[in-house]
Design brief:
3 domains; single chain; mainly alpha; about 70% helix; elongated
Length: about 350
């Protein structure tokens, strides 16, 4: 390339000779600004650009999701926000809304701390009495030739139980506020904390234990972690969509990906709106009904129009997808509650 070419006749991004307002190689404008005001102009342009595509996409996503899905699959993409871009935007908005509306669980009141102290003291006394009884049983087994191994095992369990309760009581005495959050406060909570759930899945046992011991804290952790792994819902949903359309000609995995991504983007926007409504007490009931009623209805309309289904075909697939969604969310709930610190 000749060095005599004026530098202003070259694209500042890729160095290609310019012939017009934009570079034909990379698309950058020929004239670039270096001013603070131009940053404001770019912001306004970005908002306008989203307005041009976003406000054509969002109404369809809400009212005609199947039509939006079908148009994108068929190649009409210039006018609409792509599924992945809209999904990322909705997840970002969901993160902002959850960060703004998520409230830390209320600290324990003086009455709750008093109940927790009484419950821990009573539990410590019971553990001490149980330990004394196990020691006597071991001594009696040794004298009478009984099952010494079993008695020693029960004594070990009793000691560990007492050590755990003593540690909880010590923590409470050192920091009553922290201790009250983890200690059983009152007879009802004490009973639920002592209740043991025995299933074939240890993770589920732990999740139920934490939920029953402190429901408010468990739900707080769930809300705070919900958005982090939301992107995994796309690959999780695809196998089920594929199975529901197995053998149907003209339907590809790409179609299912577009469907799932637009659907999840809508759900994220819906839950963001419901989280905002929930923060206003009079609207909390409305938010609860929206969460229950809107997702299956939206899924039904999207399935019917995106895949050109009849009412019956769309209906059974909606029921199946609702069941799958419930199973996935239940699994995720269990994992978050059990594995969160």
């Amino acid at each position: 390339m000749s060095r005599n070419v004026d530098e202003h006749a070259l694209c500042l991004n890729c160095g290609t000779p310019l012939d017009g307002t934009y570079c034909h190689a990379c698309g950058q404008r020929a004239h670039v600004h270096r001013s603070l005001w131009h940053l404001v102009e770019e912001l306004l342009h970005g908002v306008t650009h989203f307005d041009a595509k976003g406000w054509r996409t969002l109404p369809l996503l809400v009212a005609r999701p199947g039509l939006l899905t079908r148009r994108y699959i068929d190649g009409q993409r210039t006018r609409y926000v792509s599924p992945l871009a809209l999904f990322l935007f909705s997840m970002f908005l969901f993160f902002l809304v959850m960060s703004a509306t998520l409230r830390t669980p209320a600290t324990a009141s003086e009455a709750e701390r008093s109940e927790a102290r009484s419950a821990l003291t009573e539990a410590a006394a019971d553990a001490l009495a149980d330990l004394d009884e196990r020691e006597k049983e071991l001594e009696q087994a040794r004298k009478e030739g009984g099952n010494v191994a079993r008695a020693e095992q029960q004594l070990t369990v009793a000691r560990k139980k007492k050590e755990a309760i003593d540690a909880s009581l010590a923590l409470f005495m050192a920091d009553p506020q922290a201790g009250a959050a983890s200690a059983p406060a009152g007879p009802a909570r004490a009973a639920s904390a002592r209740a043991e759930v025995n299933t074939d899945w240890p993770v589920l046992n732990e999740a139920v234990r934490r939920l029953s011991a402190n429901p408010e804290l468990a739900l707080y952790k769930l809300k705070g972690s919900a958005y982090k792994f939301a992107f995994l819902l796309i690959p999780i949903s695809l196998p089920f969509l594929w199975l529901m359309f197995l053998g149907r000609r003209g339907v590809t995995l790409f179609d299912h990906t577009v469907f799932a991504t637009y659907s999840l983007a809508f759900m994220a926007l819906l839950f963001s709106a419901c989280a905002l409504l929930e923060s206003v007490p009079p609207a909390a009931t409305v938010a609860a009904w929206l969460v229950v009623l809107v997702p299956p209805l939206h899924m039904f309309w999207q399935l019917r129009e995106a895949y050109a289904l009849g009412v019956g075909s769309a209906l059974w697939r909606t029921v199946a997808m609702s069941a799958v969604t419930a199973l996935v969310l239940l699994t995720y709930l269990v994992l978050v509650l059990a594995l969160s610190a």
